[in-house]
Amino acid sequence: MSTIAKAQFPDEQSGGDFQRQGDAFREPIAGETGRYHLYVSWACPWASRAIIARTIKGLEDAISMSAVDPIRDERGWAFREGPGYSRDPINGFAFLSEAYAVSDPSYRGRVTVPALWDKQARRIANNSDDDIMRAFETEFEAFAKDRIDLYPAEHRDEIDALNELIYETVNNGVYRAGFATSQEAYEKAAYGVFDTLDRLEERLAHRRYLIAKQPVETDWKLFVTLIRFDAVYFGHFKCNVRRIVDYPNLWGYLRDLYAIDGIAETVNFDHIKRHYYMTHDEINPTRIVPIGPALDFLTPHGREKLT
Predict the structure, then answer these.
(1) Which residue among the candidates 36, 39, 44, 233 is catalytic per the annotation?
(2) For 143-191, how does the pLDDT look when each residue is reduced to its tens digit (9 = 90+)?
(3) Catalytic residue among 36, 85, 107, 175
(4) pLDDT of 65-106, one tens digit each?
(5) What span, in angstroms and rounded, lies between the C-alpha atoms of 182 and 260?
(6) What's the pTM value of the predicted model, to 2 decimals?
(7) What residues contact 73, with CB distance under 8 A and at least 6 apart?
Protein backbone atom coordinates (compact mmCIF):
# COMPACT_ATOMS: atom_id res chain seq x y z
CA MET A 1 0.00 0.00 0.00
CA SER A 2 1.36 3.44 -0.90
CA THR A 3 2.02 6.16 1.67
CA ILE A 4 -0.78 8.19 0.12
CA ALA A 5 -3.22 5.31 0.41
CA LYS A 6 -2.44 4.78 4.09
CA ALA A 7 -3.55 8.32 4.86
CA GLN A 8 -7.10 7.98 3.61
CA PHE A 9 -9.12 7.66 6.82
CA PRO A 10 -9.78 9.59 8.91
CA ASP A 11 -7.92 12.88 9.38
CA GLU A 12 -5.52 13.35 12.26
CA GLN A 13 -6.71 12.72 15.80
CA SER A 14 -5.39 14.75 18.73
CA GLY A 15 -6.64 13.94 22.23
CA GLY A 16 -9.79 12.42 20.78
CA ASP A 17 -10.47 15.44 18.56
CA PHE A 18 -10.83 15.17 14.80
CA GLN A 19 -8.38 17.53 13.04
CA ARG A 20 -9.14 18.23 9.39
CA GLN A 21 -6.21 18.23 7.00
CA GLY A 22 -5.42 21.53 5.27
CA ASP A 23 -5.64 21.98 1.51
CA ALA A 24 -2.32 21.37 -0.25
CA PHE A 25 -2.93 22.99 -3.64
CA ARG A 26 -3.91 26.66 -3.56
CA GLU A 27 -2.82 28.12 -6.90
CA PRO A 28 -4.78 31.10 -8.27
CA ILE A 29 -7.49 29.99 -10.70
CA ALA A 30 -7.57 31.84 -14.01
CA GLY A 31 -10.94 32.64 -15.54
CA GLU A 32 -10.33 30.75 -18.77
CA THR A 33 -12.96 28.61 -20.43
CA GLY A 34 -11.93 25.04 -21.25
CA ARG A 35 -8.74 25.16 -19.18
CA TYR A 36 -9.95 23.27 -16.11
CA HIS A 37 -11.57 19.96 -15.27
CA LEU A 38 -13.33 19.48 -11.93
CA TYR A 39 -12.97 16.10 -10.21
CA VAL A 40 -15.78 15.59 -7.68
CA SER A 41 -17.78 13.11 -5.67
CA TRP A 42 -21.55 13.56 -5.49
CA ALA A 43 -21.29 12.17 -1.95
CA CYS A 44 -18.86 14.75 -0.58
CA PRO A 45 -20.25 18.00 0.88
CA TRP A 46 -17.03 19.88 0.11
CA ALA A 47 -17.20 18.84 -3.55
CA SER A 48 -20.91 19.67 -3.59
CA ARG A 49 -20.09 23.30 -2.87
CA ALA A 50 -18.09 23.51 -6.10
CA ILE A 51 -20.74 21.57 -8.03
CA ILE A 52 -23.46 23.96 -6.84
CA ALA A 53 -21.43 27.08 -7.72
CA ARG A 54 -20.75 25.67 -11.20
CA THR A 55 -24.46 24.85 -11.62
CA ILE A 56 -25.85 28.15 -10.34
CA LYS A 57 -23.48 30.22 -12.44
CA GLY A 58 -24.14 28.08 -15.53
CA LEU A 59 -20.48 27.22 -16.08
CA GLU A 60 -20.99 23.72 -17.44
CA ASP A 61 -19.59 24.66 -20.85
CA ALA A 62 -16.63 26.52 -19.37
CA ILE A 63 -15.50 23.90 -16.84
CA SER A 64 -15.80 20.17 -17.50
CA MET A 65 -16.54 17.81 -14.62
CA SER A 66 -16.53 14.11 -13.75
CA ALA A 67 -17.34 12.13 -10.61
CA VAL A 68 -15.53 9.32 -8.82
CA ASP A 69 -17.04 6.12 -7.43
CA PRO A 70 -18.73 6.96 -4.09
CA ILE A 71 -17.30 3.82 -2.49
CA ARG A 72 -13.79 4.65 -1.28
CA ASP A 73 -11.41 2.01 0.06
CA GLU A 74 -7.83 2.15 1.34
CA ARG A 75 -6.69 3.13 -2.17
CA GLY A 76 -8.82 6.26 -2.08
CA TRP A 77 -11.22 7.75 -4.62
CA ALA A 78 -11.43 5.58 -7.75
CA PHE A 79 -12.45 6.21 -11.34
CA ARG A 80 -14.83 3.42 -12.32
CA GLU A 81 -17.84 3.09 -14.58
CA GLY A 82 -21.20 3.19 -12.85
CA PRO A 83 -24.43 5.14 -12.29
CA GLY A 84 -23.44 8.75 -11.75
CA TYR A 85 -19.68 8.18 -11.97
CA SER A 86 -17.21 7.31 -14.70
CA ARG A 87 -13.67 6.52 -15.68
CA ASP A 88 -11.34 9.49 -15.83
CA PRO A 89 -12.09 11.24 -19.15
CA ILE A 90 -9.09 13.58 -18.98
CA ASN A 91 -6.02 11.59 -17.96
CA GLY A 92 -7.15 7.97 -17.80
CA PHE A 93 -6.15 7.69 -14.15
CA ALA A 94 -7.51 4.73 -12.20
CA PHE A 95 -7.38 6.60 -8.87
CA LEU A 96 -7.45 10.27 -7.96
CA SER A 97 -4.25 9.69 -5.98
CA GLU A 98 -2.48 9.49 -9.35
CA ALA A 99 -3.46 13.09 -10.08
CA TYR A 100 -2.00 14.11 -6.71
CA ALA A 101 1.21 12.14 -7.34
CA VAL A 102 1.68 13.72 -10.78
CA SER A 103 1.07 17.17 -9.35
CA ASP A 104 3.44 16.73 -6.40
CA PRO A 105 5.47 13.50 -6.18
CA SER A 106 6.34 14.33 -2.55
CA TYR A 107 2.70 14.63 -1.45
CA ARG A 108 1.87 12.29 1.46
CA GLY A 109 -1.46 13.67 2.64
CA ARG A 110 -5.01 12.47 2.20
CA VAL A 111 -6.46 12.60 -1.31
CA THR A 112 -9.58 14.74 -1.36
CA VAL A 113 -12.28 16.13 -3.60
CA PRO A 114 -12.94 18.55 -5.15
CA ALA A 115 -9.76 18.79 -7.18
CA LEU A 116 -9.48 21.28 -10.03
CA TRP A 117 -7.20 19.94 -12.73
CA ASP A 118 -5.35 22.40 -14.97
CA LYS A 119 -5.32 20.87 -18.45
CA GLN A 120 -2.60 23.25 -19.66
CA ALA A 121 -0.15 22.67 -16.80
CA ARG A 122 -1.25 19.01 -16.43
CA ARG A 123 -1.49 19.20 -12.66
CA ILE A 124 -3.94 19.97 -9.87
CA ALA A 125 -4.24 23.73 -9.64
CA ASN A 126 -6.38 23.81 -6.51
CA ASN A 127 -8.06 21.38 -4.10
CA SER A 128 -9.61 23.97 -1.77
CA ASP A 129 -13.39 23.93 -2.03
CA ASP A 130 -13.45 27.51 -0.74
CA ASP A 131 -11.02 28.72 -3.42
CA ILE A 132 -12.79 26.81 -6.18
CA MET A 133 -16.26 28.00 -5.21
CA ARG A 134 -15.11 31.63 -4.90
CA ALA A 135 -13.27 31.47 -8.25
CA PHE A 136 -16.37 30.12 -9.99
CA GLU A 137 -18.30 33.02 -8.49
CA THR A 138 -15.85 35.79 -9.37
CA GLU A 139 -13.30 34.76 -12.03
CA PHE A 140 -15.62 33.16 -14.57
CA GLU A 141 -18.24 35.90 -14.79
CA ALA A 142 -17.57 36.39 -18.52
CA PHE A 143 -18.61 32.79 -19.18
CA ALA A 144 -21.48 32.55 -16.69
CA LYS A 145 -24.92 31.91 -18.14
CA ASP A 146 -26.46 33.29 -14.97
CA ARG A 147 -25.10 36.47 -13.39
CA ILE A 148 -26.34 35.66 -9.88
CA ASP A 149 -23.94 37.25 -7.40
CA LEU A 150 -23.06 34.75 -4.67
CA TYR A 151 -20.53 37.08 -3.03
CA PRO A 152 -22.05 40.58 -3.23
CA ALA A 153 -19.68 43.35 -2.17
CA GLU A 154 -22.11 44.94 0.29
CA HIS A 155 -22.46 41.70 2.28
CA ARG A 156 -18.91 40.33 2.17
CA ASP A 157 -17.99 41.01 5.81
CA GLU A 158 -21.17 39.29 7.02
CA ILE A 159 -20.70 36.43 4.55
CA ASP A 160 -17.13 35.82 5.71
CA ALA A 161 -18.07 35.91 9.39
CA LEU A 162 -21.05 33.56 9.06
CA ASN A 163 -19.08 31.25 6.76
CA GLU A 164 -16.50 30.83 9.52
CA LEU A 165 -19.09 30.08 12.22
CA ILE A 166 -20.95 27.57 10.04
CA TYR A 167 -17.75 25.86 8.95
CA GLU A 168 -16.32 25.48 12.45
CA THR A 169 -19.49 24.34 14.21
CA VAL A 170 -21.71 22.75 11.56
CA ASN A 171 -19.89 21.78 8.34
CA ASN A 172 -16.84 20.45 10.17
CA GLY A 173 -18.67 20.07 13.48
CA VAL A 174 -20.56 16.98 12.33
CA TYR A 175 -17.25 15.36 11.36
CA ARG A 176 -15.66 16.32 14.66
CA ALA A 177 -18.55 14.59 16.40
CA GLY A 178 -18.58 11.57 14.10
CA PHE A 179 -14.85 10.88 14.19
CA ALA A 180 -14.25 11.79 17.86
CA THR A 181 -12.48 9.08 19.83
CA SER A 182 -13.37 10.33 23.29
CA GLN A 183 -16.72 11.08 24.94
CA GLU A 184 -15.59 14.59 25.84
CA ALA A 185 -14.53 15.45 22.29
CA TYR A 186 -17.74 14.01 20.86
CA GLU A 187 -20.03 15.89 23.24
CA LYS A 188 -18.22 19.19 22.73
CA ALA A 189 -18.55 18.91 18.96
CA ALA A 190 -22.13 17.61 18.94
CA TYR A 191 -23.42 20.28 21.33
CA GLY A 192 -21.65 22.87 19.17
CA VAL A 193 -23.53 21.65 16.11
CA PHE A 194 -26.90 22.12 17.78
CA ASP A 195 -26.02 25.41 19.41
CA THR A 196 -25.44 26.86 15.94
CA LEU A 197 -28.44 25.13 14.37
CA ASP A 198 -30.62 26.61 17.11
CA ARG A 199 -29.23 30.07 16.36
CA LEU A 200 -29.79 29.63 12.63
CA GLU A 201 -33.36 28.46 13.28
CA GLU A 202 -34.01 31.75 15.07
CA ARG A 203 -32.26 33.75 12.34
CA LEU A 204 -34.46 32.19 9.65
CA ALA A 205 -37.71 32.90 11.49
CA HIS A 206 -38.05 36.33 9.90
CA ARG A 207 -35.85 36.18 6.82
CA ARG A 208 -35.98 33.88 3.82
CA TYR A 209 -32.22 33.40 3.45
CA LEU A 210 -29.30 33.84 5.82
CA ILE A 211 -27.96 37.20 4.67
CA ALA A 212 -29.48 38.72 1.52
CA LYS A 213 -32.75 38.62 -0.41
CA GLN A 214 -31.31 35.84 -2.54
CA PRO A 215 -29.05 32.92 -1.59
CA VAL A 216 -25.35 33.78 -1.31
CA GLU A 217 -22.45 31.40 -0.91
CA THR A 218 -23.12 31.07 2.84
CA ASP A 219 -26.55 29.57 2.15
CA TRP A 220 -25.03 26.95 -0.11
CA LYS A 221 -22.24 26.15 2.33
CA LEU A 222 -24.90 25.42 4.94
CA PHE A 223 -27.13 23.60 2.45
CA VAL A 224 -24.60 20.84 1.72
CA THR A 225 -24.58 19.85 5.40
CA LEU A 226 -28.32 20.25 5.98
CA ILE A 227 -29.22 18.09 2.98
CA ARG A 228 -27.10 15.22 4.39
CA PHE A 229 -28.03 15.71 8.02
CA ASP A 230 -31.07 13.50 8.60
CA ALA A 231 -29.89 10.78 6.21
CA VAL A 232 -26.31 10.53 7.51
CA TYR A 233 -25.11 12.84 10.27
CA PHE A 234 -28.05 12.25 12.64
CA GLY A 235 -27.35 8.53 12.97
CA HIS A 236 -23.96 7.78 11.46
CA PHE A 237 -22.17 10.70 13.14
CA LYS A 238 -24.32 10.57 16.32
CA CYS A 239 -25.60 14.14 15.89
CA ASN A 240 -28.95 12.97 17.19
CA VAL A 241 -30.34 15.69 19.44
CA ARG A 242 -32.71 16.85 16.70
CA ARG A 243 -33.26 16.24 13.01
CA ILE A 244 -33.51 19.05 10.48
CA VAL A 245 -37.18 18.13 9.96
CA ASP A 246 -37.68 18.99 13.65
CA TYR A 247 -36.70 22.61 12.95
CA PRO A 248 -39.63 24.34 11.20
CA ASN A 249 -37.58 27.19 9.76
CA LEU A 250 -34.47 25.21 8.80
CA TRP A 251 -36.59 22.47 7.23
CA GLY A 252 -38.56 24.99 5.17
CA TYR A 253 -35.36 26.84 4.24
CA LEU A 254 -33.72 23.58 3.11
CA ARG A 255 -36.69 22.75 0.87
CA ASP A 256 -36.68 26.31 -0.47
CA LEU A 257 -33.04 25.99 -1.59
CA TYR A 258 -33.60 22.49 -2.94
CA ALA A 259 -36.38 23.82 -5.19
CA ILE A 260 -34.09 26.29 -7.00
CA ASP A 261 -33.49 25.27 -10.62
CA GLY A 262 -30.70 22.73 -10.99
CA ILE A 263 -30.08 22.11 -7.29
CA ALA A 264 -32.01 18.83 -6.97
CA GLU A 265 -29.77 17.40 -9.69
CA THR A 266 -26.70 18.10 -7.54
CA VAL A 267 -28.02 15.87 -4.73
CA ASN A 268 -27.49 12.11 -5.10
CA PHE A 269 -28.69 10.30 -1.98
CA ASP A 270 -27.62 6.92 -3.30
CA HIS A 271 -24.01 8.14 -3.54
CA ILE A 272 -24.24 10.03 -0.24
CA LYS A 273 -25.56 7.12 1.82
CA ARG A 274 -23.43 4.42 0.24
CA HIS A 275 -20.30 6.53 0.63
CA TYR A 276 -20.70 7.28 4.33
CA TYR A 277 -22.11 3.96 5.50
CA MET A 278 -19.85 1.75 3.37
CA THR A 279 -16.64 3.78 3.49
CA HIS A 280 -16.45 4.58 7.21
CA ASP A 281 -16.23 1.00 8.39
CA GLU A 282 -14.52 2.11 11.61
CA ILE A 283 -17.88 3.72 12.47
CA ASN A 284 -20.18 1.24 10.67
CA PRO A 285 -18.27 -2.08 10.51
CA THR A 286 -21.22 -4.00 9.02
CA ARG A 287 -21.36 -1.52 6.10
CA ILE A 288 -25.15 -1.86 6.07
CA VAL A 289 -26.78 1.13 4.37
CA PRO A 290 -30.06 2.18 6.03
CA ILE A 291 -33.14 2.35 3.82
CA GLY A 292 -34.46 5.60 5.30
CA PRO A 293 -35.29 8.22 6.16
CA ALA A 294 -38.28 9.04 3.97
CA LEU A 295 -37.92 12.75 3.23
CA ASP A 296 -39.97 14.82 0.79
CA PHE A 297 -38.00 17.88 -0.26
CA LEU A 298 -40.68 18.85 -2.78
CA THR A 299 -43.44 19.73 -0.33
CA PRO A 300 -44.33 23.47 -0.34
CA HIS A 301 -41.98 25.42 1.89
CA GLY A 302 -44.14 28.54 2.32
CA ARG A 303 -41.18 30.89 2.67
CA GLU A 304 -42.02 33.16 -0.28
CA LYS A 305 -43.58 35.73 2.05
CA LEU A 306 -40.27 36.26 3.89
CA THR A 307 -37.68 38.74 2.68
Answers:
(1) 44
(2) 999 889 999 999 999 999 999 999 999 999 999 999 999 999 999 999 9
(3) 175
(4) 999 999 999 999 999 999 999 999 999 999 999 999 999 999
(5) 40
(6) 0.93
(7) 279
Integer Cα distance of 225 and 239 in angstroms: 12
What is the enclosing helix (H) or strand (E) of 17?
A: strand 17-18
- Please state the CATH superfamily assignment of the domain spanning residues 3-143 in this structure: Glutaredoxin (3.40.30.10)
Q: Does 44 qualify as catalytic in the annotation?
A: yes
Fold of 153-265: Glutathione S-transferase Yfyf (Class Pi); Chain A, domain 2 (1.20.1050)
Question: In the chain, where are the structural domains located?
Answer: 3-143, 153-265
Strands 17-18 and 36-40: unpaired
- Annotation says 239 is catalytic: no
